[in-house]
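Support case: user asked for a sample of complex input and structure output to validate their parser. Sending the pair below.
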Amino acid sequence: MKRIAVDAMGGDYAPQAIVEGVNQAIELYKDIEVQLYGDEAKIKPYLKENPRIRIVHTEEKIDSDEEPAKAIRRKKQASMVLAAKAVKDGQADAVLSAGNTGALLAAGLFVVGRIKGVERPGLLSTLPTRDGQGFDMLDLGANAENTPHHLYQYAVLGAFYAKHVRGLTNPRIGLLNNGTEETKGDSLRKETYQLLVADPNLNFIGNIEARELLNGVADVVVADGFVGNAVLKTIEGTAMSVMSQLKSAIASGGLRAKLGALLLKPSLYRLKDSLDYSSAGGAVLFGLKAPVVKAHGSSDAKSIVSTLRQIRTMLETDVVGQSVQEFSEEE
Amino acid sequence: MKRIAVDAMGGDYAPQAIVEGVNQAIELYKDIEVQLYGDEAKIKPYLKENPRIRIVHTEEKIDSDEEPAKAIRRKKQASMVLAAKAVKDGQADAVLSAGNTGALLAAGLFVVGRIKGVERPGLLSTLPTRDGQGFDMLDLGANAENTPHHLYQYAVLGAFYAKHVRGLTNPRIGLLNNGTEETKGDSLRKETYQLLVADPNLNFIGNIEARELLNGVADVVVADGFVGNAVLKTIEGTAMSVMSQLKSAIASGGLRAKLGALLLKPSLYRLKDSLDYSSAGGAVLFGLKAPVVKAHGSSDAKSIVSTLRQIRTMLETDVVGQSVQEFSEEE
């Protein structure tokens, strides 16, 4: 049985979206058990009773605008902190939260703890590409500054994730850079390039440019946390902006455009689906002793189900245990 | 008379697109003179004779895949190099090229030269926002590494550009960062923040996030060249990807979708226009002794006209002369 500790109180639509997602996932996956951390009175109205779901009551929770490190230190009884602590104490195998990202990163690092040998766990997400295959990118912002060796470890971790969780046999690893030639980039990129090219165990395909990211040029993309975060947010912002401009172009196009849009509706929904990050699951703080996964703040029940499926796969393939092994050999 | 040196041989559609753009601009703007650098035999077929256009013949040119610094050093007679040299020698007031970006940056730095006091000229473009106002961002990749003082100078330069060229009275300056709070970011961002906030002459509005860029949250956005380049390319790549996914969603939607798309055509063209970077002109290597402007490699005649209009405005407002003044006072 895979035991997943879920923070029921984090996210824009908590606890309803979280609890409804758990209700659905528990039906789909007979090999998971969920511990729901949060306010019992607020959880119960949405919960379908199931022997594999247990509420762990607490009234404290961390808000999305709280200073992460402080919140973790002060709110020892917060739903997110208790969920992380359950993993630390061996009561659960993984944590899921849609709440304050910084706080979850802090809880992951300070409560769950790093894998020995992994210097700086990185935030990893599977992002969608045009061809539907997607790619894994890290670090998406767990760190504001990284060294070449951190980036090298992200390549190893990312390859592990792509292999075990996504089932790729020989994932192509790219380094996000401002040009494709070997000599491109700042000193961080140049030194990282040399570390990656020197490791025969990595299928390193060289530098890739941000313009090509969504074209599926690599299976794993390595970036420092600052750049990874900026790129991720730019993808989100640009996609939203184009869609909203499409809407206003239609709205200002009169009856003709409205009729056209009506006919196009199914196609536009397909487009929206293909841009939908939530179906790929949440962002994993990867490099910790257990899966710690952040679902998007605006998660609905469907994205919670996807994220629970992702966690289940991580537990099934024991990707964390495999990483522990790998990094103990590296030492 | 404003004398503009144009590299007729740079860009995917050179010399035709360049020459045709010059033909149109010379009709529109009676106060410009154009020197066309390149192969006379290849230019002539497209050229409408005009007393304010002069061909300066040369057979050498720099290709898009050449190593920039080497190309500039070796090809002394290349159209781009001669155009830059015309500015240096006082024969022209500005340079335009749609060719090899790196080579143009090198020609700008080593032939035209920096404004005294400007440590690292930055690449600046006006990018489109949802509301049509746009924002200026720099550095978009002239440098792979920057110090806090470089970024501070980008704020000063960007504000100058927004004021003089775009006519904004008190441009809002934002620092691209991984969160809006003052304490966010790596050491580069933290130190830059303090420099910006300490200058009462700058309308510094604080940190802004990449997700908000296209929402018009600032008039000038300051970034280091590595991050600016990554963000610019991500915007381009994501917009292209969404549009291409829209196309395939329509294509796979059968007759109904095709009819809808037909009705929507005018609206879709409006969308395409609003996403069109070329109408905003080219990228300026700003901080040099004269306007050195890079038109997009895929420029058509229309974008060459826009870029010539932009250069004309830069010369009319003497934004470079004003910057020289400003930086001589800073010393």
